Structure to design on (505 residues):
């Protein structure tokens, strides 16, 4: 197929907030224990953190990391994870049917973040706990005063506050699986009074209220509206969560996942703006897309894969260890394009998750750490994206989707910065290659000259189910992409099911 498009910096849609390239670390399976933390590993530092994992997380380029859950947070007592390690209690984790040893808590995780160069985003437990415990954690983490909590913080090794800016008011409180699940009315009231109290303690924080845990939830839409009717004035963000997978062997439909994410974002924006209108407010609630990924959550019988085993309470069991294919990485790259296309509204996003648990990085206890296929679109997009997001209209025809009608074969976005332009493109067609010609005359006009291609990457495999594994950790990667630049016309060949990134400077 032939495809035509253009990149013109005058069509800027948003200033990019780097929080869009955030991650998520939950106490779940082998994420913390035998993932980032493995004291007996050959590369472990004095605090038990694997240096090989730290290196890979740095390379991935994650900005803010949401912690400590997820479903886990709704039963978590944060105090269990601070103070002398030998006095920390072992607890049952009801969300993942595991035993939590509490060897890693707030201090250790913050130390690890210093090493990987990312910021902390905290979630408070509004499942089994409430406003007072949220205030206790906020005082412990952020207060600059002489109190019992801040003395304890200092005694535990941190004199200065952790200064955490972003706080989630619970997790997926719309989900019946959530400990302390509430209806929208009850949660909206709890979120509002907790947010008000937290702001009295620290007016500088930014607060995320729980939206729906998926756009397919029966309460989607009415949940957002009711929660915001109570908490609109008290919060800055509403969360979106969404996971995608190939169902019933229908890869073409799976390749349309970006459309689903776009519609979800647009629907939530419309609902929040409708609430604003009823309140006669020009305040805009932003979106924190704080869980997104490919996750093989449902099996073809409509059941759930990877349910925690209900026998025993293991420490760090192997849970949610999905292996990602080249196809998954192409869909994933398209989800990143979609987030960038909505950067005017999505100011923060967290890839769920980071290590071993539906993760771009895998580890073997006592063994290697390796990059999954999804690592590549994330690390390249995070590294190449500039600070201004630009719309890239492309005409390349459509394919019919059962759920979304006609879906564009090619989807693209660009970013511009002082030194150049980065373009990210996906070919969603299962069968057809695309010869894409992009008119960059608008870019040449902005910079006063034509730019040169300095990097071009292709993610594509003839076997789209190829994956990286412990036995073959470098089977899939990105390859150099051939480009032709004639004046201001850039031409690239996109194989079917492919993702590319081109940097011009
Ligand atoms: O990311 C895995 C789980 O997915 C999280 O714990 C939960 O918030 C969501 O349902």
């Amino acid at each position: 197929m032939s495809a035509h498009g253009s990149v013109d910096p005058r069509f800027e849609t948003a200033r990019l907030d780097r929080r869009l390239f955030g991650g998520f670390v939950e106490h779940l399976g082998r994420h913390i224990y035998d993932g980032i933390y493995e004291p007996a590993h050959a590369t472990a530092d004095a605090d038990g953190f694997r240096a090989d994992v730290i290196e890979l997380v740095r390379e991935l380029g994650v900005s803010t990391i949401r912690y400590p859950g997820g479903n886990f947070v709704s039963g978590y007592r944060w105090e269990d994870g601070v103070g002398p390690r030998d006095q920390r209690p072992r607890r049952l984790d009801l969300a993942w049917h595991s035993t939590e040893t509490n060897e890693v808590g707030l201090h250790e995780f913050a130390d690890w973040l210093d090493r990987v160069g990312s910021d902390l985003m905290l979630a408070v437990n509004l499942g089994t706990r409430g406003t007072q415990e949220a205030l206790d954690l906020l005082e412990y983490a952020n207060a600059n005063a002489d109190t019992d909590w801040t003395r304890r913080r200092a005694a535990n090794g941190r004199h200065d506050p952790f200064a955490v800016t972003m706080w989630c008011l619970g997790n997926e409180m719309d989900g019946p699986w959530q400990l302390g699940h509430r209806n929208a009315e009850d949660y909206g009231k709890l979120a509002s009074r907790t947010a008000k109290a937290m702001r009295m303690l620290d007016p500088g924080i930014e607060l995320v209220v729980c939206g729906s845990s998926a756009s397919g939830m029966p309460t989607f839409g009415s949940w957002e509206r009711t929660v915001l009717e109570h908490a609109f004035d008290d919060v800055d963000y509403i969360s979106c969560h969404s996971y995608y997978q190939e169902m019933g062997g229908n890869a073409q439909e799976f390749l349309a996942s970006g459309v689903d994410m776009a519609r979800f974002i647009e629907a939530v924006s419309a609902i929040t703006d409708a609430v604003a209108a009823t309140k006669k407010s020009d305040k805009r609630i932003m979106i924190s897309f704080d869980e997104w990924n490919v996750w093989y959550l449902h099996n073809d019988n409509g059941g759930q894969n990877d349910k925690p085993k209900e026998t025993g309470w293991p420490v760090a069991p192997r849970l949610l260890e999905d292996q990602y294919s080249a196809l998954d990485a192409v869909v994933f790259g398209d989800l990143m394009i979609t987030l960038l296309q909505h950067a005017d509204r999505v100011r923060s996003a967290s890839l769920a998750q980071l290590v071993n648990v539906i993760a771009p990085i895998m580890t073997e206890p006592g063994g290697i750490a390796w990059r999954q296929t999804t690592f590549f679109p994330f690390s390249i997009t995070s590294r190449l994206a500039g600070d201004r997001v630009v719309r890239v209209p492309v005409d390349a025809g459509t394919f019919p989707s059962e759920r979304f009608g006609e879906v564009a074969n090619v989807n693209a976005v660009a970013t511009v910065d002082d030194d150049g332009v980065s373009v990210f493109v996906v070919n969603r067609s299962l069968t057809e290659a695309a010869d894409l010609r992009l008119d960059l005359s608008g870019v040449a006009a902005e910079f006063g000259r034509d730019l040169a291609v300095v990097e071009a990457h292709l993610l594509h495999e003839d076997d789209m189910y190829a994956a990286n594994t412990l036995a073959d950790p470098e089977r899939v990667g990105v390859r150099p992409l051939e480009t032709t630049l004639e004046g201001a016309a850039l031409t690239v060949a996109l194989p079917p099911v492919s993702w590319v990134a081109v940097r011009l400077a």
User: Anything to note?
Assistant: The domain at 17-129+165-384 is CATH 3.20.20.80 (TIM Barrel). Residues 340 and 389 are 7 Å apart (CA to CA). The chain is about 25% helix and 25% strand. The first helix runs from residue 51 to 60.
